[in-house]
Amino acid sequence: MRALLLCGLLFGCAAAPVVVLPEAPAVTSIFLVPQGGHTGIAVRRADIPTPLWPEKRDFPQADYLEVGWGERDFYMARSAGPWLSFKAAFFPNRSVLHVAGVRGELAALFRHSDLVEIRLSQPALEGLLRYIHEAFARDGETPATPLGPGHYGDSRFYPGRETFHLLRTCNVWTAAALRAAGLPVRDAITRDGLLSQVRALPAR
Fold this sequence. Notes:
This protein has helices at about 5-10, 70-75, 80-90, 105-110, 120-135, 170-180, 190-200, and strands at about 20, 25-35, 40-45, 65-70, 95-100, 115-120, 150, 155-165. The protein is about 25% helix and about 25% strand. The chain has one domain (about 5-200). It is of the alpha+beta class. The radius of gyration is 16 Å and the shape is globular. Helix 5 (about 120-135) runs antiparallel to helix 6.
């Protein structure tokens, strides 16, 4: 399994389920998925309303969709050398989203990841899903065209709308997605910087 390792390359324990702000009745769970120096987010496919995230149509058999964001050339490379690492770190570059469709339990695919469950209210979930929806570069409401196969399982790469640079890394993107759900987390360049904030949120 290959994940985006740029954050760990540059900057060199299981958790209990977490229920967090906004303080409204929790209706579903999302999952923070750490892999190497990278973090992604997994949501239940059934929780995604029809107007949002039309790329879900590419994964009709999936129970969950796991999404990560990063620099296009580095993330899509099967073997990223020093030049791609340098370019990703020090030049603004195009972004890409990696979406994996997961059937069954997430832990079966992400056996070596300490998944963090986060319980969300319906408004919080919709805020997060809209953030992810708007990260894709697409023509109107049509699904974005995949750029190619992903790195594990049933997965694909899609063009991203935003620009990747040194201060806008995979974990910064994930932190912004969690803030869109109302979670009080700050930008964190490293995986551990983000995980420490999420795990410190009050459990209920």
